[in-house]
Write a structure and sequence with these properties.
Helices cover 73% and strands 0% of the residues. The chain contains nine helices and no strands. The two termini are 33 Å apart.
Length: 235
C-alpha cells in the first residue's frame, strides 16, 4: 500500500502537481482546523480522495499500523492522573484530535503514493523548485519512495528470522536491540549498494524526466487544493 500501483482510477490520470496541491492544502487545513467539526469535514474529503484513488482504507490503515502506538500514547499520557479523577477526558481530547489529524494526512499521502509513479513525482518537485535545490529534493523523494518499501521488507524478514530462531523467548529490550541493530546494518548495506549502483549508471543531476501537462480533470483537484489552503489561511 505504500508504493505505486498502476491503475486507471481518476487519481491515476491526474497531473502529479495537482495532487501535490491537494496534499499541501489538506495538510494545512488539518493543522488549522483541528476541531471535531473541522476533522469531520476533512474526513469526508479524505474519503473522497481514497475513493478517487481506489485505495482501500482498511488496508491503508494496516500499512500505517506502526504509527498508532505513538498516536495513542499521547492522549493516554496526557489524560492519566495520579488521583481522582484518574483520567481527564478534557485534557486527552486535544492530543486525540491531533492524532486523528495525522491519520487523515497519512491516508491522503498514501493515495498519492499509490497513484503517482516515482518519476512523475520527481518531475513535479523539480518543476516546483527550480535549480539544483529542486533537483536535489526530487532525487531525495525518489530515493525515499524506492528505498522505504525495500527497508520495510528487510525488517519483516529480520523479524521472521528472529521468531524462527526463538528470539521471542528473550526479553523485550533485548529483542528490540537485536532487531534494530540488524535492521540498521541491513540499511547501511543497502545504502552502500545503492551508491555503487548510482555511480555505475552515471547518475546525473539533469536527467530526462517525463513531460507533465494539466488536463481538464486537474481543474477540480486544483480547486479543491486551493480551497483547502484558503480555508487554512483564513483561520
Amino acid at each position: 500500500m505504500l508504493s505505486y500501483v498502476p491503475g486507471v482510477s481518476l487519481a491515476h490520470r491526474l497531473d502529479p502537481r495537482s495532487k501535490l496541491v491537494v496534499q499541501i492544502g489538506f495538510a494545512a487545513a488539518a493543522v488549522a482546523h483541528t476541531t471535531p467539526v473541522g476533522l469531520a469535514v476533512l474526513t469526508l474529503v479524505a474519503a473522497g480522495v481514497l475513493y478517487a484513488a481506489r485505495t482501500p482504507p482498511l488496508r491503508t490503515l494496516w500499512a500505517f499500523r506502526f504509527v498508532f502506538p505513538f498516536l495513542l500514547a499521547a492522549p493516554i499520557l496526557e489524560g492519566v492522573r495520579w488521583g481522582s479523577p484518574w483520567f481527564d477526558l478534557e485534557a486527552a481530547t486535544g492530543p486525540a484530535l491531533a492524532g486523528y489529524r495525522v491519520v487523515l494526512v497519512l491516508l491522503v499521502a498514501a493515495a498519492y503514493v499509490r497513484t503517482t509513479p516515482i518519476r512523475q513525482s520527481r518531475a513535479a518537485i523539480a518543476w516546483g523548485v527550480p535549480g539544483r535545490v529542486g533537483r536535489f529534493l526530487a532525487v531525495g523523494v525518489a530515493l525515499v519512495f524506492r528505498f522505504l518499501p525495500v527497508l520495510r521488507a528487510d525488517v519483516g524478514r529480520i523479524r521472521d528470522a528472529h521468531r524462527a530462531r526463538l528470539g521471542t523467548d528473550r526479553s523485550v529490550p533485548e529483542q528490540m536491540q537485536l532487531i534494530s541493530t540488524a535492521a540498521a546494518n541491513r540499511a547501511l548495506d543497502r545504502a552502500d549498494r545503492l551508491s555503487v549502483a548510482m555511480r555505475a549508471r552515471c547518475f546525473a543531476w539533469n536527467p530526462t524526466l517525463p513531460a507533465l501537462s494539466f488536463s481538464r480533470l486537474d481543474a477540480p483537484a486544483l480547486a479543491i487544493g486551493f480551497a483547502l489552503g484558503l480555508a487554512a489561511v483564513l483561520v
